[in-house]
Amino acid sequence: MQASDSTNIRIQGPIYIESIEGGFGVSIVIANIGKENVYNVNCSVEIYGLVIFGASMEKVIDVFHAGKKITIHLIPFGIGPASIKITAGEEEKTTKCLIFGPFIVGISNYNGTTVACHRIAIERLIS
To answer: Which of 10, 39, 78, 86 could be joined to 51 by an S-S link, Cβ 3.0–4.6 Å?
Structure first.
């Protein structure tokens, strides 16, 4: 008998990070795409870069109802390139961005394409 190659399979749970948007702070939409309520869901947001304050937050969702979404809003203050790491239950996403004071711009999604870029905010900061 011959050994076969192994394959890792990741089974995604019902908690899904639906979107990450910038602007004044960062807004993250998390969804329970399952058919049952989920209890005690740990969520965290961490921003790595030159952030003076507001770089992280943690939250526990006691009851996350089936089919519902929640929005987490964080307003950091910093400058320059940064990365944002979001964890919700077993789901984890990391994206890159630029921070100008409380404004988050140039958020890229998980394959590097631009999701949101608020050029007007940058132009107002520069002028």
So the answer is: 78
